[in-house]
C-alpha cells in the first residue's frame, strides 16, 4: 500500500478504531508507521510526507504515540559493493516529518544499509523472498531485519 491507498481503501480507519480502543483501555499505545517502497512508485517524497503528517496528527489526537519507521533498504548494489540507494529521499522525508512532528523514529533504512553493505551482496541476497526480489524478505530476512528494528527501538527508548 501507499500512504494514500492505505487511507482510501479504509485500512486507516480500521487502524484508528483499533488505536482508539487501546487508548481507551488506558494503555500506552505506540503506533508504528512505515511507508516508502510503494509511495516511491507513484509520487515524490513530499506527497508521502504530507500523508504521514496527517497520520501522525490523528494518532496524537487519539492520545497514542506515533513511531515513524524508515523503509528497509532494497538489497540492490553498485559494482563497488555499496547499496544502490533509491529509497533515500523517502527515508529522508520520514525523518523530516518525525523531527517536525516530534515523534519517535526508527531509522531502519540507515541500519539496513549498514548491515547489508557489511555482509555484502551475496549474503544479502540470501535474505530475498525470491532470487531476483531485492525488496521482499524470506523468513530469515524477516528475522534479521526484525532484530534491527528491535535494537533501534531499544536505542530510541533509551535516548
In a few lines, what is going on in this structure?
The chain is mainly alpha-helical. Helix content is 58%, strand content 8%. The protein has one domain (3-157): 3-Layer(aba) Sandwich (Rossmann fold), CATH 3.40.50.
Note the topology.
Blueprint: H1 3-8, H2 11-24, E1 30-33, H3 39-42, H4 45-61, E2 65-69, H5 88-101, E3 104-106, H6 108-125, H7 139-158
Parallel strand pairs: 1-2, 2-3
Distance between the termini: 31 Å
* Percent of residues in β-strands: 5-15%
Largest sheet: 3 strands, parallel
The residue-averaged pLDDT reads 94
Output the strand order for the largest sheet.
Answer: 1-2-3
Total helices: the number is: 7
CATH domain class name: Alpha Beta
Computed CA radius of gyration, to the nearest angstrom: 16 Å
Task: Tell me, briefly, the overall form.
Answer: globular
Structural class: mainly alpha
Low-confidence stretches: none
CATH topology: Rossmann fold
Q: Count the domains.
A: 1
Total number of β-strand segments?
3
Q: What is the CATH architecture term?
A: 3-Layer(aba) Sandwich
Order of helices and strands: HHEHHEHEHH
CATH-level-4 superfamily name: SGNH hydrolase
Helicity, in percent? 55-70%
Q: Could you describe the 3D structure shown?
A:
This protein has 159 residues and is mainly alpha-helical. The chain has one domain: SGNH hydrolase (Rossmann fold). Helices cover 58% and strands 8% of the residues. The chain has helices at residues 3-8, 11-24, 39-42, 45-61, 88-101, 108-125, 139-158, and strands at residues 30-33, 65-69, 104-106. The protein has a three-stranded parallel sheet with strand order 1-2-3, with helices on both faces. Helix 5 links the parallel strand 2 and strand 3 (104-106). Helix 4 (45-61) runs parallel beside helix 5 (88-101). The longest helix has 20 residues, at 139-158. It is globular and about 50 Å long. It starts with a helix and ends with a helix. This is SGNH hydrolase-type esterase domain-containing protein. Keywords: Hydrolase. Residues 22-141 form the SGNH hydrolase-type esterase domain. InterPro entries: RhgT-like, SGNH_hydro, SGNH_hydro_sf. It holds the Pfam family Lipase_GDSL_2.
Amino acid at each position: 500500500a501507499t500512504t494514500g491507498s492505505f487511507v482510501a481503501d479504509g485500512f486507516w480507519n480500521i487502524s484508528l478504531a483499533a488505536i482508539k480502543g487501546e487508548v481507551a483501555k488506558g494503555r500506552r499505545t505506540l503506533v508504528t508507521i512505515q511507508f516508502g517502497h510503494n509511495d516511491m512508485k507513484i509520487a515524490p517524497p513530499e506527497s508521502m510526507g504530507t500523508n504521514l503528517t496527517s497520520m501522525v496528527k490523528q494518532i496524537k489526537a487519539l492520545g497514542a504515540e506515533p513511531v515513524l519507521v524508515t523503509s528497509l533498504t532494497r538489497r540492490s548494489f553498485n559494482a563497488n559493493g555499496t547499496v544502490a540507494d533509491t529509497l533515500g529521499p523517502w527515508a529522508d522525508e520520514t525523518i523530516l516529518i518525525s523531527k517536525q512532528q516530534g515523534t519517535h523514529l526508527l531509522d531502519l533504512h540507515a541500519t539496513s544499509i549498514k548491515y547489508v553493505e557489511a555482509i555484502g551482496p551475496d549474503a544479502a541476497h540470501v535474505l530475498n523472498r525470491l532470487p531476483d526480489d531485492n525488496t521482499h524478505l524470506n523468513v530469515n530476512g524477516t528475522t534479521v531485519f526484525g532484530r534491527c528494528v528491535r535494537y533501534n527501538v531499544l536505542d530510541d527508548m533509551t535516548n
